[in-house]
Amino acid sequence: MSKNKETQEKEKTKETVLEVSDIDPKFKYEISKLPGAEKVMLCFQCGTCTADCPIARFDDFYRPRKLIRMVQLGLKDRLLSNEVIWLCSTCFTCIDHCPQDVGIASIVRALRNLTVKEGEMPVVYKELASNVRKTGYAYMISGLRLKNREKQGLPKLPKANLESMAKLFDITGFSKPLEKGTT
Ligand code: SF4
Ligand code: SF4
Question: Which of 52, 70, 94 to mutate to test the pocket of ligand 2 (most atoms within 8 A of CB)?
Fold first, then answer.
């Protein structure tokens, strides 16, 4: 069993023991005020979203139906510290098939945004965001690659306005999780 799998198994066990202190009764209202998440309370747990989700097909722990139920129950801390919320590919299949028109993908996005607001995000996204802030590109482009482009007669890559980029990161508060250590 890989280390990641072991951690996931532990998380799974932890999730089975629910304490009253784990519940934040206001959380569902907080979420339902966010764009696209208004219908979170309409979910009646039919499971269609999970049955049709391409990620749930490949991951034993990613279950959109369960995430929605956790929101309804107010399990805020468990949701925001749960790495599975970063697995959604935003394909919108769940939204297309939900009989209650619940914006599942938007709810997952809201959970991610709240996590980032609290200064946390997976290291891979942190690196991508950090690259965007430093260079304007999600991936660092090596000098060798740029020379090769020149040799091939390809046009120069456009330069980002890094000053504006830094301002945007600061104004939106997106610099905060980047300054924190890796999660
Ligand atoms: S498909 Fe809709 S109603 Fe059914 S479990 Fe998923 S979110 Fe809830
Ligand atoms: S949007 Fe996310 S939760 Fe919905 S089906 Fe696609 S991967 Fe699954």
Answer: 94
- Which ligand has an atom closest to residue 66 CA? 1
16-30, pLDDT tens digit by residue? Answer: 678 888 899 999 999
Q: Give the separation between CA 28 and CA 77, rounded to whole angstroms.
A: 13
Quick check: 45 pLDDT over 80?
yes
Task: Say how many Å lie between the CA of residue 45 and the centre of ligand 1.
Answer: 5
CA of 7 to the centre of ligand 2 (A): 23
What distances in angstroms separate CA 55 from CA 59, 75, 83, one per listed residue?
A: 6, 22, 14
Please tell me the least confidently modeled range out of 6-15, 43-52, 82-91, 117-126.
6-15
What pLDDT, in 10s, does the model give residues 98-139?
999 999 999 999 999 999 888 888 999 999 999 999 999 998
Q: Which ligand is in closest contact with the Cα of 72? A: 1
Q: Which atom of ligand 1 sits closest to the CA of residue 68?
A: 7
